[in-house]
Amino acid sequence: MPSGKNIKLILYELLQFAALIVPVFVIMERFGRLIRDVRGRDLTAYWLVVAASIAYVTSATLLVWVPLKYVTLKQRRFISEITQWRPTALAYIILCTLPCSAILIASSKVQVDDGVRLDLFTELPVSLVLMSLICVDIIERIRPYSLDSDLDMAGPVLTHLEQVTTVTGQLHTDEVPNGVTQDHPEVRNPPRPAIRLTTNPRVTSMAYLYSSSSRPRAYSGPLGFFWRRDGRGEVFVDTFLFWMDTVEMVRVAGEPSVFYSAWVFPVYILAFMSTLRMVITPQNPLLSFAGFALQDFPFFIIRVALIAVFGYVTPVLYVLKNVLVSLTFIYFTYLTRLRIFKRQSMF
């Protein structure tokens, strides 16, 4: 009988493989139906598109996905030295998200050129692409953890005590007379042992947001189930929040006034560029700059332009979010380092 570790591995790999091939098949099938209807019910064009999607998925799986998975799982060659970015996420974005975005743009161009609006790319295929992207991100985040044990991310954990000589104790040791040896201890103030607090390596930086002396770590009363928490569930919440801005941008591209215009090109291109943030590991400090450069600042520019051209096709709340995140990133990261801001801090 396979072990739990092998079952978890097989489950993760099947889910990631399904997230790779299903969006491509759905988007290509919709595109084949679009080409068929535009060309007057031409079934040959439809089956050519379907055959091209099958050939693409087969080639991408055998030539890129399977070899990459083998090298990643076996930790072979240069993969074992990669710690700041995720090769699987990069491969997924290139093999699935990029062609799906290109097909969505091509579908808009085909309909605009022929003067028809068949509305084959509604909410379902777009949401399927985004949901598959989110699932791959979640799997990559929870892969190091077990499915049948608690993942406590509440704060620092005391793992062992180590006696460390303090500075005061070292000074008293240096002041001992030459005649006093270890066999005749006559030191009045022996060095005090200090406790070194070490943290669990699995504790993330976000854990300190939840650790507080005012809230207990555990509660055994009748309402103790309200205090229960697990880091794996928080990974799901954090991942969905991580992608909400991109989801809203793709939703704007689905508006008929935007989808059947030239504005669909920059909207989908910027939405795809924001997905590149998934390649960076969540603990990487570069993620903050990537969020500013690939999402918040470009999204702010394109949203202001869309509101000026089409009206309120996107909520003003997201515009405020983009501008506030961009300004705070610039201020706290760069402006506070200037001499004029070092004299008196506002925060």
UniProtKB/TrEMBL annotation:
Domain of life: Eukaryota
Spans traversing the lipid bilayer: 9-26, 46-68, 89-108, 120-139, 260-280, 292-313
Spans annotated as Disordered: 174-194
Keywords: Membrane, Transmembrane, Transmembrane helix
InterPro entries for this protein: Uncharacterised_FAM23-like_TM
Name of the protein in question: Transmembrane protein 236
